[in-house]
Amino acid sequence: MTPFHLAFPVKNLEATRTFYEQLLGCKVGRTSERWIDFDFWGHQLSAHLTEAPISEPPANPVDGKQVPIKHFGAILQWDDWNRLSEKLKTHRIEFIIEPYIRFKGEVGEQGTMFFLDPSGNALEFKSFKDPNQIFAT
């Protein structure tokens, strides 16, 4: 798979670096006084410092939960998703949507969770027991 690149706004580079490097385990690439590149599960994320307000994204109801419309994340292996979920709980991350299994026993069964980074960017991490179900309808 070809890696993607995503640039996103942040309010504090040091807090961002700590969150993505220490908590999520992303390696740091190139940096400057205004941005940091992260290896986000093989993809390139560029956190760019901004003084402009970063508002909480609006949400849509999905399965009775409020899913942030603007979000990004990664699809992890099942065991990696569970380990990350436990690590986030241990670090008392406040979830927008607590880790849970969606479509249990159905096509597209997946683990999913949503939370915010220190700048209020919404992240979703998910996993499929069967990776062939990622695009299943």
Helix count equals: 2
Could you spell the SSE succession in H and E letters?
EHEEEEEEHEEE
Q: In percent, how much strand structure appears in the residues?
A: 35-45%
How far from one another are the termini? Answer: 21 Å
CATH superfamily of the largest domain: 2,3-Dihydroxybiphenyl 1,2-Dioxygenase, domain 1
Strand runs, count: 10
Share of helix, binned: 10-25%
The 3D shape can be described as: globular
Which parts are unreliable, with pLDDT below 50 for 5 consecutive residues or more? none
The domain count comes to: 2
Characteristic key phrases:
four-stranded mixed sheet, alpha+beta, Signal recognition particle alu RNA binding heterodimer, srp9/1, 2 helices, 10 strands, 137 residues, 2,3-Dihydroxybiphenyl 1,2-Dioxygenase, domain 1
Give a short overview.
The protein is an alpha+beta fold and 137 residues long. It folds into 2 domains: 5-49, Signal recognition particle alu RNA binding heterodimer, srp9/1; 60-133, Roll (2,3-Dihydroxybiphenyl 1,2-Dioxygenase, domain 1).
